[in-house]
Amino acid sequence: MSRSVQVPIADDLPEADRLDGTSHPRNTPSVLGQQQAEETLLKALASDRLHHAWLITGPQGVGKASFAWRAARFLLTRDVSDGNDMFGAPPPAESLDTDPDDIIVRRALALSEPRLMLLRRPYDEKNKRFKQDIPVDTVRELHRFFALSVPDGGRRVVIVDAADDMNTSAANALLKQLEEPPAHTVFLLISHRPSRLLPTIRSRCRELRCAPLPADLLVAALAQQDIDVPEGTSDEALCTLAGGSVGRAAQLTLGEGLALYGRLIALMSGLPDFDRQKAIALAEWTTARDKPERFDLFCDLLDMFLSRLARTGAAGPPAIEAAHGEGKLMARLCRDVRQAQSWAAAQDRLGAKLRTGRAANLDPAALILDTILEIAATAKGRASA
Protein backbone atom coordinates (compact mmCIF):
# COMPACT_ATOMS: atom_id res chain seq x y z
CA MET A 1 0.00 0.00 0.00
CA SER A 2 1.19 3.53 -0.76
CA ARG A 3 2.53 5.45 2.17
CA SER A 4 2.32 9.15 2.88
CA VAL A 5 5.12 11.18 1.34
CA GLN A 6 6.57 13.70 3.79
CA VAL A 7 8.09 16.85 2.32
CA PRO A 8 9.44 19.52 4.68
CA ILE A 9 7.68 22.88 4.58
CA ALA A 10 9.88 25.93 4.77
CA ASP A 11 7.94 27.91 7.34
CA ASP A 12 6.92 24.81 9.35
CA LEU A 13 3.89 26.59 10.82
CA PRO A 14 0.72 24.85 12.06
CA GLU A 15 -1.78 24.21 9.29
CA ALA A 16 -5.50 24.81 9.71
CA ASP A 17 -6.36 22.18 7.09
CA ARG A 18 -4.48 19.35 8.81
CA LEU A 19 -5.84 17.18 11.63
CA ASP A 20 -3.52 16.84 14.61
CA GLY A 21 -1.73 13.50 14.63
CA THR A 22 -2.10 12.94 10.89
CA SER A 23 -0.24 14.02 7.79
CA HIS A 24 -1.55 16.81 5.58
CA PRO A 25 -4.03 15.79 2.82
CA ARG A 26 -1.49 16.84 0.17
CA ASN A 27 0.74 13.99 1.37
CA THR A 28 -1.89 11.33 0.65
CA PRO A 29 -0.86 9.77 -2.67
CA SER A 30 -4.02 7.67 -3.15
CA VAL A 31 -7.61 8.51 -2.29
CA LEU A 32 -9.80 5.55 -1.40
CA GLY A 33 -13.50 5.27 -2.12
CA GLN A 34 -13.92 8.29 -4.40
CA GLN A 35 -13.69 6.60 -7.79
CA GLN A 36 -16.92 8.17 -9.06
CA ALA A 37 -15.67 11.71 -8.41
CA GLU A 38 -12.38 10.83 -10.12
CA GLU A 39 -14.14 9.42 -13.18
CA THR A 40 -16.33 12.52 -13.45
CA LEU A 41 -13.30 14.79 -13.51
CA LEU A 42 -11.45 12.61 -16.04
CA LYS A 43 -14.45 12.47 -18.37
CA ALA A 44 -14.80 16.23 -18.25
CA LEU A 45 -11.16 16.65 -19.20
CA ALA A 46 -11.32 14.06 -21.99
CA SER A 47 -14.42 15.66 -23.52
CA ASP A 48 -13.02 19.21 -23.35
CA ARG A 49 -15.62 20.11 -20.71
CA LEU A 50 -13.32 20.82 -17.81
CA HIS A 51 -15.26 23.37 -15.81
CA HIS A 52 -13.28 26.25 -14.32
CA ALA A 53 -14.68 25.69 -10.79
CA TRP A 54 -15.46 22.47 -8.93
CA LEU A 55 -17.26 22.29 -5.60
CA ILE A 56 -16.01 19.18 -3.78
CA THR A 57 -18.68 18.25 -1.25
CA GLY A 58 -19.43 15.49 1.23
CA PRO A 59 -19.26 14.83 4.98
CA GLN A 60 -16.22 16.19 6.77
CA GLY A 61 -13.25 13.85 6.79
CA VAL A 62 -14.19 11.53 3.89
CA GLY A 63 -11.19 12.58 1.78
CA LYS A 64 -12.35 15.75 0.00
CA ALA A 65 -9.11 17.62 0.64
CA SER A 66 -6.99 14.61 -0.32
CA PHE A 67 -9.01 14.31 -3.54
CA ALA A 68 -8.55 18.04 -4.25
CA TRP A 69 -4.78 17.74 -3.89
CA ARG A 70 -4.73 14.62 -6.03
CA ALA A 71 -6.71 16.43 -8.73
CA ALA A 72 -4.47 19.49 -8.43
CA ARG A 73 -1.30 17.47 -8.94
CA PHE A 74 -2.81 15.85 -12.01
CA LEU A 75 -4.02 19.11 -13.55
CA LEU A 76 -0.72 20.86 -12.92
CA THR A 77 1.25 18.13 -14.64
CA ARG A 78 -1.18 17.66 -17.54
CA ASP A 79 -0.66 19.79 -20.63
CA VAL A 80 -3.43 22.33 -21.26
CA SER A 81 -4.08 20.85 -24.71
CA ASP A 82 -4.72 17.35 -23.32
CA GLY A 83 -8.16 16.20 -24.29
CA ASN A 84 -8.89 18.92 -26.86
CA ASP A 85 -6.05 18.69 -29.33
CA MET A 86 -7.13 16.51 -32.28
CA PHE A 87 -3.56 16.25 -33.57
CA GLY A 88 -1.27 14.09 -31.52
CA ALA A 89 -3.19 14.34 -28.23
CA PRO A 90 -2.32 11.59 -25.74
CA PRO A 91 -4.98 8.99 -24.93
CA PRO A 92 -7.43 9.94 -22.17
CA ALA A 93 -6.02 9.37 -18.70
CA GLU A 94 -7.47 6.43 -16.78
CA SER A 95 -6.68 7.82 -13.35
CA LEU A 96 -5.44 10.93 -11.57
CA ASP A 97 -2.16 9.23 -10.74
CA THR A 98 1.01 11.33 -11.02
CA ASP A 99 4.70 10.55 -10.80
CA PRO A 100 5.85 11.28 -7.21
CA ASP A 101 9.28 12.22 -8.56
CA ASP A 102 7.88 14.79 -10.99
CA ILE A 103 9.35 18.19 -10.10
CA ILE A 104 5.91 19.84 -10.27
CA VAL A 105 4.48 17.25 -7.89
CA ARG A 106 7.34 17.76 -5.47
CA ARG A 107 6.94 21.54 -5.61
CA ALA A 108 3.20 21.18 -4.97
CA LEU A 109 3.88 19.02 -1.91
CA ALA A 110 6.33 21.64 -0.65
CA LEU A 111 3.84 24.47 -1.36
CA SER A 112 6.36 26.06 -3.71
CA GLU A 113 4.70 25.42 -7.07
CA PRO A 114 4.13 28.87 -8.70
CA ARG A 115 0.97 27.70 -10.50
CA LEU A 116 -0.72 26.52 -7.30
CA MET A 117 -2.51 28.71 -4.74
CA LEU A 118 -3.90 27.46 -1.42
CA LEU A 119 -6.48 29.54 0.45
CA ARG A 120 -7.09 28.51 4.06
CA ARG A 121 -7.41 30.03 7.52
CA PRO A 122 -4.12 31.78 8.30
CA TYR A 123 -2.13 31.23 11.47
CA ASP A 124 -1.74 34.17 13.83
CA GLU A 125 1.84 33.85 15.07
CA LYS A 126 1.41 36.62 17.63
CA ASN A 127 -1.59 35.01 19.37
CA LYS A 128 -0.51 31.44 18.53
CA ARG A 129 -3.82 30.42 17.04
CA PHE A 130 -5.66 30.20 13.72
CA LYS A 131 -7.92 32.92 12.46
CA GLN A 132 -11.59 32.03 12.91
CA ASP A 133 -12.24 32.40 9.19
CA ILE A 134 -10.59 33.01 5.84
CA PRO A 135 -10.36 36.82 5.67
CA VAL A 136 -10.83 38.89 2.55
CA ASP A 137 -7.12 39.80 2.47
CA THR A 138 -6.27 36.13 1.96
CA VAL A 139 -8.59 35.89 -1.05
CA ARG A 140 -7.26 39.15 -2.45
CA GLU A 141 -3.87 37.50 -2.73
CA LEU A 142 -5.31 35.90 -5.86
CA HIS A 143 -4.78 39.22 -7.67
CA ARG A 144 -1.03 38.94 -7.13
CA PHE A 145 -1.10 35.22 -7.96
CA PHE A 146 -2.81 35.79 -11.30
CA ALA A 147 -0.65 38.81 -12.10
CA LEU A 148 2.54 36.73 -12.01
CA SER A 149 3.63 35.24 -15.31
CA VAL A 150 4.19 31.50 -15.50
CA PRO A 151 7.38 30.62 -17.42
CA ASP A 152 6.26 27.16 -18.54
CA GLY A 153 2.62 28.02 -19.18
CA GLY A 154 0.16 25.35 -18.13
CA ARG A 155 -2.81 25.50 -15.84
CA ARG A 156 -3.15 27.34 -12.60
CA VAL A 157 -4.97 25.64 -9.74
CA VAL A 158 -6.56 27.30 -6.71
CA ILE A 159 -7.57 25.17 -3.71
CA VAL A 160 -9.93 26.65 -1.11
CA ASP A 161 -9.96 24.58 2.08
CA ALA A 162 -12.57 25.04 3.23
CA ALA A 163 -14.87 27.38 1.34
CA ASP A 164 -17.18 27.22 4.38
CA ASP A 165 -14.53 29.14 6.36
CA MET A 166 -14.69 32.30 4.22
CA ASN A 167 -16.28 35.33 5.81
CA THR A 168 -18.81 37.32 3.77
CA SER A 169 -16.25 39.73 2.31
CA ALA A 170 -13.93 36.89 1.36
CA ALA A 171 -16.78 34.98 -0.29
CA ASN A 172 -17.73 38.02 -2.36
CA ALA A 173 -14.11 38.54 -3.38
CA LEU A 174 -13.85 34.93 -4.53
CA LEU A 175 -17.14 35.24 -6.37
CA LYS A 176 -15.66 38.00 -8.54
CA GLN A 177 -12.84 35.66 -9.54
CA LEU A 178 -15.31 32.88 -10.35
CA GLU A 179 -17.39 35.24 -12.49
CA GLU A 180 -14.40 36.17 -14.64
CA PRO A 181 -11.90 33.35 -14.24
CA PRO A 182 -8.45 33.75 -15.80
CA ALA A 183 -7.69 31.43 -18.71
CA HIS A 184 -6.48 27.93 -17.91
CA THR A 185 -7.39 28.23 -14.23
CA VAL A 186 -9.22 25.60 -12.20
CA PHE A 187 -10.74 26.37 -8.79
CA LEU A 188 -11.20 23.46 -6.36
CA LEU A 189 -13.50 24.51 -3.53
CA ILE A 190 -13.82 22.09 -0.60
CA SER A 191 -17.10 22.36 1.29
CA HIS A 192 -18.52 20.38 4.20
CA ARG A 193 -21.78 22.36 4.19
CA PRO A 194 -22.42 23.70 0.66
CA SER A 195 -25.87 24.97 1.65
CA ARG A 196 -24.15 27.69 3.69
CA LEU A 197 -22.22 29.05 0.72
CA LEU A 198 -23.47 31.95 -1.36
CA PRO A 199 -25.94 30.60 -3.94
CA THR A 200 -24.04 32.59 -6.57
CA ILE A 201 -20.84 30.71 -5.71
CA ARG A 202 -22.61 27.36 -5.91
CA SER A 203 -24.17 28.25 -9.25
CA ARG A 204 -20.75 28.92 -10.78
CA CYS A 205 -19.32 25.56 -9.71
CA ARG A 206 -19.84 22.02 -10.84
CA GLU A 207 -20.28 19.67 -7.89
CA LEU A 208 -18.13 16.63 -7.16
CA ARG A 209 -19.64 14.57 -4.37
CA CYS A 210 -17.37 12.50 -2.12
CA ALA A 211 -19.13 9.66 -0.34
CA PRO A 212 -18.59 8.16 3.13
CA LEU A 213 -16.29 5.14 3.13
CA PRO A 214 -17.29 1.56 3.95
CA ALA A 215 -15.51 -0.11 6.85
CA ASP A 216 -12.79 -1.87 4.83
CA LEU A 217 -11.75 1.26 2.93
CA LEU A 218 -11.93 3.40 6.07
CA VAL A 219 -9.52 1.09 7.88
CA ALA A 220 -7.24 1.06 4.82
CA ALA A 221 -7.28 4.86 4.74
CA LEU A 222 -6.35 4.96 8.43
CA ALA A 223 -3.45 2.61 7.68
CA GLN A 224 -2.15 5.18 5.17
CA GLN A 225 -1.88 7.52 8.14
CA ASP A 226 -0.16 4.83 10.23
CA ILE A 227 -3.22 4.65 12.51
CA ASP A 228 -4.33 1.23 13.73
CA VAL A 229 -7.82 0.36 14.91
CA PRO A 230 -7.64 -0.20 18.68
CA GLU A 231 -7.59 -3.82 19.79
CA GLY A 232 -11.06 -5.05 20.65
CA THR A 233 -12.79 -2.52 18.38
CA SER A 234 -14.52 -3.91 15.31
CA ASP A 235 -13.97 -2.17 11.99
CA GLU A 236 -17.75 -1.91 11.55
CA ALA A 237 -18.25 -0.26 14.94
CA LEU A 238 -15.56 2.31 14.22
CA CYS A 239 -17.01 3.02 10.78
CA THR A 240 -20.49 3.39 12.27
CA LEU A 241 -19.33 5.83 14.93
CA ALA A 242 -17.24 7.75 12.39
CA GLY A 243 -20.02 7.88 9.83
CA GLY A 244 -17.65 6.65 7.12
CA SER A 245 -15.33 9.60 7.71
CA VAL A 246 -11.59 8.92 7.83
CA GLY A 247 -10.95 12.21 9.59
CA ARG A 248 -13.53 11.45 12.24
CA ALA A 249 -12.22 7.91 12.66
CA ALA A 250 -8.73 9.34 13.18
CA GLN A 251 -10.08 11.77 15.78
CA LEU A 252 -11.91 8.98 17.58
CA THR A 253 -8.86 6.74 17.57
CA LEU A 254 -6.22 9.34 18.43
CA GLY A 255 -8.41 11.45 20.70
CA GLU A 256 -9.86 8.69 22.90
CA GLY A 257 -13.26 9.13 21.29
CA LEU A 258 -14.07 5.44 21.30
CA ALA A 259 -13.49 5.23 25.03
CA LEU A 260 -15.49 8.43 25.59
CA TYR A 261 -18.51 7.10 23.70
CA GLY A 262 -18.32 3.88 25.70
CA ARG A 263 -18.36 5.87 28.94
CA LEU A 264 -21.31 7.91 27.67
CA ILE A 265 -23.34 4.79 26.85
CA ALA A 266 -22.46 3.24 30.22
CA LEU A 267 -23.59 6.40 32.01
CA MET A 268 -26.88 6.50 30.08
CA SER A 269 -27.61 2.79 30.56
CA GLY A 270 -29.68 3.38 33.70
CA LEU A 271 -31.76 6.29 32.40
CA PRO A 272 -33.87 7.97 33.62
CA ASP A 273 -31.61 7.35 36.62
CA PHE A 274 -27.85 7.84 36.43
CA ASP A 275 -24.82 7.73 38.70
CA ARG A 276 -24.13 11.36 39.60
CA GLN A 277 -20.55 10.67 40.69
CA LYS A 278 -19.80 9.00 37.36
CA ALA A 279 -21.38 11.96 35.59
CA ILE A 280 -19.15 14.38 37.50
CA ALA A 281 -16.08 12.26 36.74
CA LEU A 282 -17.00 12.21 33.03
CA ALA A 283 -17.51 15.98 32.99
CA GLU A 284 -14.17 16.59 34.69
CA TRP A 285 -12.33 14.23 32.32
CA THR A 286 -13.98 15.78 29.27
CA THR A 287 -13.11 19.33 30.30
CA ALA A 288 -9.50 18.87 31.38
CA ARG A 289 -7.63 22.12 30.80
CA ASP A 290 -4.78 20.45 28.95
CA LYS A 291 -7.24 18.66 26.61
CA PRO A 292 -9.53 21.38 25.20
CA GLU A 293 -10.42 19.22 22.21
CA ARG A 294 -12.26 16.74 24.44
CA PHE A 295 -15.20 19.08 24.97
CA ASP A 296 -15.82 19.46 21.24
CA LEU A 297 -15.49 15.70 20.85
CA PHE A 298 -18.02 15.15 23.62
CA CYS A 299 -20.48 17.51 21.90
CA ASP A 300 -20.08 15.62 18.63
CA LEU A 301 -20.54 12.23 20.27
CA LEU A 302 -23.54 13.38 22.27
CA ASP A 303 -25.13 14.69 19.08
CA MET A 304 -24.49 11.32 17.44
CA PHE A 305 -25.97 9.46 20.42
CA LEU A 306 -29.17 11.51 20.34
CA SER A 307 -29.42 11.20 16.57
CA ARG A 308 -29.06 7.41 16.67
CA LEU A 309 -31.52 7.32 19.56
CA ALA A 310 -34.13 9.29 17.61
CA ARG A 311 -33.74 7.08 14.53
CA THR A 312 -34.38 4.01 16.69
CA GLY A 313 -38.03 4.98 17.16
CA ALA A 314 -38.62 4.89 13.41
CA ALA A 315 -36.17 2.27 12.13
CA GLY A 316 -35.41 0.13 15.16
CA PRO A 317 -32.16 -0.13 17.14
CA PRO A 318 -28.87 0.20 15.22
CA ALA A 319 -27.79 -2.94 13.37
CA ILE A 320 -24.20 -2.38 14.45
CA GLU A 321 -23.49 -1.18 17.96
CA ALA A 322 -20.92 1.60 18.30
CA ALA A 323 -20.47 0.66 21.97
CA HIS A 324 -21.44 -2.31 24.13
CA GLY A 325 -25.09 -2.12 25.23
CA GLU A 326 -26.00 0.72 22.86
CA GLY A 327 -28.72 -1.18 20.98
CA LYS A 328 -30.51 -2.41 24.10
CA LEU A 329 -30.40 1.07 25.66
CA MET A 330 -31.83 2.77 22.58
CA ALA A 331 -34.58 0.19 22.12
CA ARG A 332 -35.70 0.85 25.70
CA LEU A 333 -35.57 4.65 25.51
CA CYS A 334 -37.14 5.15 22.09
CA ARG A 335 -39.93 2.70 21.25
CA ASP A 336 -41.99 4.56 18.67
CA VAL A 337 -42.16 7.54 16.31
CA ARG A 338 -43.66 9.83 18.94
CA GLN A 339 -40.70 9.25 21.25
CA ALA A 340 -38.35 9.64 18.29
CA GLN A 341 -39.74 13.14 17.71
CA SER A 342 -39.15 14.02 21.34
CA TRP A 343 -35.51 12.86 21.20
CA ALA A 344 -34.93 14.67 17.90
CA ALA A 345 -36.19 17.88 19.49
CA ALA A 346 -33.86 17.27 22.46
CA GLN A 347 -30.96 16.81 20.06
CA ASP A 348 -31.56 20.22 18.47
CA ARG A 349 -32.18 21.94 21.79
CA LEU A 350 -29.19 20.53 23.65
CA GLY A 351 -26.82 20.98 20.72
CA ALA A 352 -27.70 24.66 20.48
CA LYS A 353 -27.39 25.07 24.24
CA LEU A 354 -23.89 23.56 24.31
CA ARG A 355 -22.70 25.73 21.42
CA THR A 356 -24.17 28.88 22.96
CA GLY A 357 -22.76 28.11 26.39
CA ARG A 358 -19.31 27.44 24.97
CA ALA A 359 -19.36 30.68 22.98
CA ALA A 360 -20.33 32.55 26.17
CA ASN A 361 -17.39 30.96 28.05
CA LEU A 362 -19.64 29.22 30.56
CA ASP A 363 -18.10 26.55 32.74
CA PRO A 364 -17.84 23.52 30.40
CA ALA A 365 -18.13 20.95 33.20
CA ALA A 366 -21.33 22.59 34.42
CA LEU A 367 -22.64 22.61 30.84
CA ILE A 368 -22.08 18.88 30.52
CA LEU A 369 -23.72 18.08 33.88
CA ASP A 370 -26.70 20.26 33.02
CA THR A 371 -27.00 18.49 29.65
CA ILE A 372 -26.97 15.08 31.29
CA LEU A 373 -29.71 16.22 33.71
CA GLU A 374 -31.85 17.36 30.77
CA ILE A 375 -31.36 14.04 29.00
CA ALA A 376 -32.44 12.23 32.19
CA ALA A 377 -35.49 14.48 32.46
CA THR A 378 -36.40 13.75 28.84
CA ALA A 379 -36.04 10.01 29.43
CA LYS A 380 -38.24 10.26 32.53
CA GLY A 381 -40.87 12.20 30.62
CA ARG A 382 -40.90 9.61 27.84
CA ALA A 383 -41.14 6.75 30.34
CA SER A 384 -44.24 8.25 31.96
CA ALA A 385 -45.90 9.24 28.70
Shape: elongated
Encode the helix/strand succession as letters. HEHHEEEHEHEHEHHHHHHHHH
Helix content: 40-55%
Note the beta-strand portion.
5-15%
Question: How would you sum up this structure in a few lines?
Answer:
The protein has 385 residues and is an alpha/beta fold.
Features:
5-stranded parallel beta sheet; Rossmann fold; alpha/beta; 49% helix; 385 residues; disordered N terminus; two-stranded antiparallel sheet; 2 domains
Topology, pairings included?
Elements: H1 35-46, E1 53-57, H2 64-77, H3 103-109, E2 116-119, E3 123-124, E4 129-130, H4 136-147, E5 156-161, H5 168-179, E6 185-191, H6 199-203, E7 206-209, H7 215-224, H8 235-242, H9 246-254, H10 257-268, H11 276-286, H12 293-315, H13 326-333, H14 337-359, H15 364-384
Parallel strand pairs: 1-6, 1-7, 2-5, 5-6
Antiparallel strand pairs: 3-4
Helix pairs in contact: 4-5, 7-8, 8-9, 10-11, 10-12, 11-15, 12-14, 14-15
Give a description of the structure:
By secondary structure, the protein is an alpha/beta fold. It folds into two domains: 25-209, 3-Layer(aba) Sandwich (Rossmann fold); 255-384. 49% of the residues lie in helices and 8% in strands. It has 15 helices and seven strands. The protein has helices at residues 35-46, 64-77, 103-109, 136-147, 168-179, 199-203, 215-224, 235-242, 246-254, 257-268, 276-286, 293-315, 326-333, 337-359, 364-384; strands at 53-57, 116-119, 123-124, 129-130, 156-161, 185-191, 206-209. Strands 2-5-6-1-7 form a five-stranded parallel beta sheet, sandwiched between helices. Strands 3-4 form a two-stranded antiparallel ribbon. α5 (168-179) links the parallel β5 (156-161) and β6. The radius of gyration is 23 Å and the shape is elongated. It starts with 34 loop residues before the first helix and ends with a helix. Mean pLDDT is 88; it is low at 1-11.
